[in-house]
Amino acid sequence: MKNDLDLQADVLIVGAGPVGLSLAMDLASRGVSTIVCETRAFAEPPNVKCNHVASRTMEQFRRLGVAQKLRDAGLPADHPNDVVFRTSVTGTELARIPIPCRRDRYTETEGPDAWWPTPEPPHRINQIYLEPILLRHTAALPGVTLLNRTQVAGFVQDAEGVTAIATDLDSGVTRSLRGRYMVGCDGGSSAVRKQMGAKLKGTAVIQRVQSTCIRAPGLRALIPGKPAWSYYAMNPRRCGTMFAIDGHETWLVHNHLNAEEPEFDSVDRDRSLREILGVGSDFEYEILSKEDWVGRRLVADRFRNGRVFLAGDAAHLWVPYAGYGMNAGIADALNLSWLLAASVQGWADEGILDAYEAERLPITEQVSQFAMDHAQKMIRARRAVPPNIEAPGPEGDALRADIGQEAYELNVQQFCCAGLNFGYFYTGSPIIVPDGEHVPPAYSMGAFTASTVPGCRAPHFWLADGRSLYDAFGPGYTLLRFDRSADVRALERAADTYRMPLTVLDIDAAVVPPAYAHRLVLCRADQHVAWRGAYIPADVYALVARLRGEPQRERATKRALPWEGVLA
């Protein structure tokens, strides 16, 4: 049955998980209308897989006005967010990574997870709490049309936009949806990816995992010592990981299958759970949900086809070590959103959209390699658990101390992953202007060097009035001026001529990171540095043209007259 009622918006979004919702939120903040299609019913409970919101994601949620709502949800305010390593969940502790509870998240200064150079440290919260907050916040925004129980069956694109055919899964009625652009945020089995012709490439199987969400009211009383957010169980019978969901009685348990266990059904779920928890056959628990999944390292060979884009699991899949499954997808969305808005609003050339794939595809490849490398180290560590790890006495104590130290050193980088948050940079982008002075500093999963080399994240600091630097950023480009005598009027006129949003921010701060060695640093909406220098370049048109995404071949056909905002 066909219904000819058409809906139109600037951007069509397929998928209303955290990635699609973040994209819709950001576009709405920029006055860009969206239609979001989701096969689930409104407020249908999400999967319990994701447990962590990275600092970079929280920085963006702060800008979008939802960070505090998330901070107020999840584990109890005083529940430690520690990661603990034990012989079993209820067994002997081997090591502990201290992570502040959410009550102390902004004030704690001791420990590997407490020094973050940001206004918004990470937040440990399960997706069952996270997604409903994002959903209700997004659904209430002007310009967002949310279509639940709706499946996009196909699409065609032309020179002006994309037309998608959507089916109401309850009534069978179809309708056509029209947008200037479309973004597939529809997960690992993405129909958008398949239709646009992108192929996933990489390693198809790294690790098989049985995941079980359980209700076990009696478990917490059996766990000795200080509670934790995450528990790693290491014994010769079964290794696994458990996350506290509500801090009281709900837990998510991951059973990591060994290489000789290729089939999920070959492993007894109940027995494995009991060996990970360290409980006997009389211990009672209830299974709330279960999922068997394969950890992979797969990246799409393209993130774009014309007016259609991919973000999140539709574009890449890997074992989500360091929490960089969902968070990498949200980073995609918030890189793409301001570019789409620039094109829709008309202040940028459509060529600005070329930056998305040029920037995110290489970073995705890097992050996936970090995740795969860590996954392989963890697999080797699980296989190397000695058979006498639970032996009593001094010899057992010494062995457990050694194993605990190894576990701490291997894992502190993924749970306190400053490098993945603040160290990644964009090179080879058409809208970033390299200055030839330095190359961006290398980073690892856990470590980075703050830098203002174009392409890097602008290092954070607090302004004299108490605001975060990022709180003062404008909606487009923000020029940080560290010397008020620097004349920037030519750049302001050029930006005004093209209606390119430009905020000039004179810096008055007691402490500025030493990375800011230039008088002028131009930052993008996503906080990455686009250009830096001591003076505005003489050919200010060339700079503005590049920031607007104007293709080089077109820039070459134009010349700037003495600047009156006139081009010939």
Structural descriptors:
single chain; 568 residues; alpha/beta; eight-stranded mixed sheet; 14 helices; 23% strand; disordered C terminus
* Oligomer type: single chain
The pLDDT mean sits at: 91
Largest sheet: 8 strands, mixed
Q: What class, by secondary structure content?
A: alpha/beta
Low-pLDDT stretches: 559-568
Q: How large is the count of helical segments?
A: 14
Distance between the termini: 55 Å
Principal-axis shape equals globular
Radius of gyration: 25 Å
Task: Report the sheet-strand fraction.
Answer: 15-25%
Question: What is the strand tally?
Answer: 22
Helix content: 25-40%
How do the strands and helices of this protein lay out in sequence?
Blueprint: E1 7-14, H1 18-29, E2 34-38, E3 52-53, H2 55-63, H3 67-71, E4 83-86, E5 93-97, E6 123-124, H4 127-139, E7 144-148, E8 150-157, E9 162-168, E10 174-184, H5 191-196, E11 200-215, H6 219-222, E12 230-233, E13 240-244, E14 250-256, H7 269-277, E15 286-300, E16 304-305, E17 308-310, E18 316-318, H8 326-345, H9 354-383, H10 394-415, H11 418-423, E19 477-481, H12 489-497, E20 502-506, E21 520-523, E22 529-533, H13 540-547, H14 552-555
Parallel strand pairs: 1-2, 1-10, 2-7, 4-12, 10-17, 19-20
Antiparallel strand pairs: 3-6, 4-5, 8-9, 9-10, 11-14, 11-15, 12-13, 13-14, 15-18, 16-17, 19-21, 21-22
Helix pairs in contact: 1-4, 1-8, 8-9
